[in-house]
């Protein structure tokens, strides 16, 4: 038996520790699909280690916000894993601190801090990325809201643990249209939030199409490392919400015994890698949308989420 | 608020297929190429057939298998083939092989159209909610979805200003009606349903000829010029 606080800490450790590895697996799969050999699976860790050893520079005129933002944003990413079912099927004490919406708020706070830091720099590309990220975040926000509504109608609460339990309870809960539509809409939002095709090229150097990737342009050294690590952690957090709450809430520990928790700690990154491979396939099969076509992508996600609420609310689906 | 209870695997699956049919209808807003539009229509019709098989298997209505087979043969294979042939004869280089662009024919942007479609679909959902119909075949949510399919098909026909989209809109509207028929009266005599399907075939031939005629006269698929004929 592990003490509950230890399990709570392990949630954060799993997410933060495994995030670069999941990013590495996705990069590798992507490279293989393109016929390249690809980087080592552990390359993101080496990158982070290198960046942490480097000197940090700040542009002239940037205030303390510029340097504080990466740290504060990373703190936000450390908080969210406490709220969502990462390792256990039963709610841990701190899981009641916030619901899905609360987790979403903390994630957007992190995004806001990074955007403010980008505005501090005075660099046109970083500012462009920050302003674009905020503009498009505003149009994906309604999608997230409607997904939360669906969850609330399905379970009577909007605690992520409750939905995961509902999904596990019967096959009828998985196949009902509201659940399928909400999961699909959330997946599209995740593609946007993690800066993937069809919204953004993940690993390009073409500044004109950049949204999220352009924001940390002026950061360097340990601060840049925190931002990079943070975006990997954010990706794994979003994957965890999709997997452990919506799509595949299996492989979680039902008790706080050591063995069960270790299995859950291995199962989550494995599931995330499968999802990441799917994302890499999407990355390689579609073209990037033109910037002003992103509203169409958001409209499609919105359509799915709204139809989910409709089928539930009016037809009992 | 109490949690919504699970509707069961059959109901859920039937509703998911119905929703997919509705999403295919929305997908037609997006299609920029005539070829893709026809392909999406074929996929939508195939979904109707899948739903017919599902309802037939669960409700033990073997004639629905026949209906599914006829639906696939006619709507998913014959009509798309016929449409493409008719259009290819019109002008091979211009229409199909270069992928004639019908994207610009929309009166509004895609996102706005989708929003209008959502509003109209919501109306369909609400109006089905107050109808005193108890489904004999597929579950009731599928009925509200079928009304939405019909209404969204209207939006497609109204907002696209090209003959081809308008024809496809009409055909997919018929898909919505088939869906409603499956929900309300799954055991509707087969001969009636087949008669409806052949009606559709007739409509396809007529529409195909109209498209060719229009294209022959105006050298475009757009109906925008027809406005000037108004008295």
Structure notes:
The complex is a heterodimer of chains A (317) and B (231). Chain A is 69% helix and 0% strand. With 317 residues, chain A is mainly alpha-helical. The longest helix of chain A is centred in the middle third of the chain and has 32 residues. Chain A is globular and about 55 Å long. Chain B has one domain. In chain B, helix 1 packs antiparallel against helix 2, helix 1 runs parallel beside helix 6 and helix 7 packs antiparallel against helix 8. Chain B is globular. At the A-B interface, helix 5, helix 7, helix 8 and helix 11 of A face helix 1, helix 5 and helix 6 of B.
Q: Mean pLDDT of chain B, rounded to whole units?
A: 81
Largest interface: A-B, 36 and 38 residues
Count of distinct strands of chain B: 0
The tally of helices of chain B reads 8
Uncertain spans of chain A: none
- Structural category of chain A: mainly alpha
Share of helix among residues of chain A?
Answer: 55-70%
Q: What is the tally of helical segments of chain A? A: 11
